[in-house]
């Protein structure tokens, strides 16, 4: 173990030696000679062969000889300490390599290097993560969750080669204006997600909704316990889906955007009387009742009569809308394997994170 640990340490030190050798070439030559000898022993050890070079013992004896001359009684405990330290270095290095491979595979298959908390991965796209808040209570649960991460990673491998045609997904969503035929794109978002706000604005500015037939899928992020990530996203989604299900106001103007789309646009792009962004107000300041009251006022502004508003309110709390939200959730989590929102499907691919203008 000592020679393996020594080889690992030499590799790490090599970064600094390379810099020093620019000014002191002799240091570099001496280092390379030692590294070559270390590699000879390391190669034998990892292939379960006997280390003939004695490099590990030389390292150990070199440390102990300096101690033996002054404090002989410390030689034995120090020898044991060196062996333990060597084991720890090897174990930590091996664990780091495994975790690095795991993160890399997760980034490739799931779009995030952190399976449980996508937003914690700085290498992945900027997202509002769909977190798994399951906390292990003991070592066995930790091991079980660790292996479940690997299961998710390998389970998502086929997604890299699947057909991402929008016709393959039976979402319940809304459109900006009536659409005929298959959709060109599916845009999954959470009304309370700040990344979704930025993404939506980029889509508006680029003409994404005008140039493509887009199905917008409002998706309130929730964890396994059923708790929603953003306080009032769920009631907002209910009203978006309910107004879409009910249909446009009887006095709607020809060519106008759907009311459901107008609600989304107002949340993401407009401000209240106090110049506060509506997204922050609805999710961070207002209660559920205040949010619902505000949405009802908007319905009136968008042209719905009192009887129409009452029907939309009833529909928003209906089992039909509940089932629609559950259906979308199952597709997002279990079929698309999305780990973060926004997620957009277009051009035969799944795109995770903020919409980027090409």
Describe the structure.
The structure is a single chain. The chain is α+β, with helices and mostly antiparallel strands. The chain folds into 3 domains: 2-103, no CATH class; 106-157, no CATH class; 164-352, Glutaredoxin (3-Layer(aba) Sandwich). It contains 13 helices and 6 strands. It has helices at 2-20, 25-46, 55-68, 75-110, 139-155, 194-206, 208-211, 233-246, 259-269, 278-285, 288-301, 306-316, 319-335; strands at 128-129, 185-189, 214-218, 340-341, 343-346, 349-352. It has a 4-stranded mixed sheet with strand order 3-2-5-6. A hairpin with a 2-residue loop joins strand 5 (343-346) and strand 6. The longest helix is centred in the N-terminal third of the chain and has 36 residues, at 75-110. It starts with a helix and ends in a 6-residue tail after the last strand.
């Amino acid at each position: 173990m000592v020679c393996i640990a020594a080889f690992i340490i030499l590799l790490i030190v090599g970064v600094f030696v390379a810099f020093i050798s620019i000014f002191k070439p002799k240091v570099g030559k001496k280092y390379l000679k030692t590294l070559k000898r270390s590699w000879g022993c390391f190669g034998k050890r990892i292939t379960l062969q006997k280390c003939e070079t004695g490099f590990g013992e030389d390292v150990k004896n070199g440390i102990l000889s300096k101690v033996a001359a002054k404090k002989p009684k410390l030689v034995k405990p120090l020898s044991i300490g060196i062996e333990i330290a060597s084991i720890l270095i090897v174990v930590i290095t091996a664990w780091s390599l495994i975790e690095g491979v795991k993160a890399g595979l997760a980034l490739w298959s799931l779009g995030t290097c952190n399976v449980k908390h996508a937003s914690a991965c700085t290498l992945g796209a900027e997202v509002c993560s769909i977190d798994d808040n399951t906390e292990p209570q003991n070592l066995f649960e930790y091991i079980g969750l660790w292996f479940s991460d690997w299961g998710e990673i390998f389970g998502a491998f086929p997604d890299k080669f699947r057909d991402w045609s929008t016709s393959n997904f039976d979402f319940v969503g809304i459109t900006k204006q009536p659409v005929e035929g298959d959709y060109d794109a599916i845009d999954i978002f959470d009304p309370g997600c700040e990344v979704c706000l930025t993404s939506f604005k980029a889509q508006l500015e680029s003409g994404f909704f005008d140039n493509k037939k887009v199905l917008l899928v409002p998706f309130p992020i929730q964890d396994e316990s059923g708790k929603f990530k953003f306080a009032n996203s769920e009631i907002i989604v209910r009203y978006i889906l309910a107004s879409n299900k009910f249909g446009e106001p009887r006095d709607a103007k020809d060519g106008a955007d759907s009311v459901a789309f107008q609600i989304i646009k107002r949340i993401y792009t407009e401000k209240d009387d106090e110049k506060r962004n509506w997204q922050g107000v609805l999710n961070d300041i207002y209660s559920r009742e205040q949010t619902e009251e505000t949405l009802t006022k908007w319905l009136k502004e968008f042209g719905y009569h009192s009887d129409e508003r009452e029907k939309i309110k009833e529909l928003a709390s209906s089992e039909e809308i509940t089932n629609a939200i559950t259906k979308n959730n199952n597709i997002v989590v279990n079929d698309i394997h999305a780990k973060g929102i926004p997620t957009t499907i277009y051009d035969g691919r799944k795109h995770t994170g903020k919409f980027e203008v090409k």
